[in-house]
Amino acid sequence: MNIHDPHSDHDIPDDCDDVGQAIREDRALRAAHTYRIRYANNGLDFGPLLLDDPMPLGRQILETAGVDALAAWSLLAILPSGDFEDVRLDEPFDLRDRRVERFIGFENDRLFKFALRDHQILWGRSTIAGRELYALAEAGEHEALFLDVPGGTDRLILATDTIDLAETGLERFIVAAKPVSDAFEITVVYNGLARTMQVRPGETVGAVIAAARPLFGSPGGDLILVDQQGRELNSAHTLRQEHVGPHAQLSLRPPVVRGG
Q1: 3-state secondary structure of 112
Q2: Cβ neighbours around 74 below 10 Å, total
Q3: Cβ atoms of 101 and 19 closer than 8 Å
Q4: pLDDT tens digits for 4-31?
Q5: Which end of the chain is more exposed for a tag (fewer CB within 10 A), N or C?
Q6: CA 157 to CA 137: how far, in whole Å?
Q7: d(CA 249, CA 230)
Q8: Taking a C-beta distance cutoff of 8 angstroms, is the pair 2, 23 a contact?
Q9: 82: Cα within 13 Å, side-chain hemisphere
Q10: Would you report the helix, strand and coil content of the chain in percent, each value rounded to 5?
Q11: 220, exposed or middle or buried, with CB in 10 Å at 0-12, 13-18, 19+?
Q12: What is the pTM of this model?
């Protein structure tokens, strides 16, 4: 699990050994005045934290990070396996043996558990942003996250979503290929004004009309869609049934009143 960290190994102070650099170089920590780890408060925004002991207590890590009221805080370590570990505040954590460089402090003593890429994740907030899940999963450009729904349809998680971890049945997220969207763009023209819209083949013409109204100031009255051949589209039909495809140009206008 290689969560992005803007700080590089080249910024190491004098007489300091960097835990992450030691791990990447596959060597033991050197005797030093300070030891640098990565620490984040209530999320994944990691920054450098200097400790003067290679075997600090959990509370010493939080105190060094400027945390008060320790009784209300939790400290988590991200293990080399990608699993999360609840660090006991009154027990030593040996940086020399554990090969851990990233720690997260949460202002909450209740932890929420879920699985992600077969890793056991602990989280100290009752909600997690979709972008945080994607960062934890290290999802690629063509991958997406889904909430595993046993016996049902897995729920797609977007980076813009906020997930309630206290929700019953929320236990496992999986990574799979990103769904291929069938959405396409059309142009709708009303009173000489043109607006583009994202639509799907299964949408009804009536639904497209309803979605188009606000683009033109929400005109009242009955409106219809007409294709470039002047054919009125049936509002009860889907765009697929009316053979409307990508880049189609449709006119939105009142229906023609025919004389009797």
Answers
A1: strand
A2: 21
A3: yes
A4: 454 444 566 779 999 999 999 999 999 9
A5: C
A6: 12
A7: 11
A8: no
A9: 14
A10: 15, 35, 50
A11: exposed
A12: 0.68
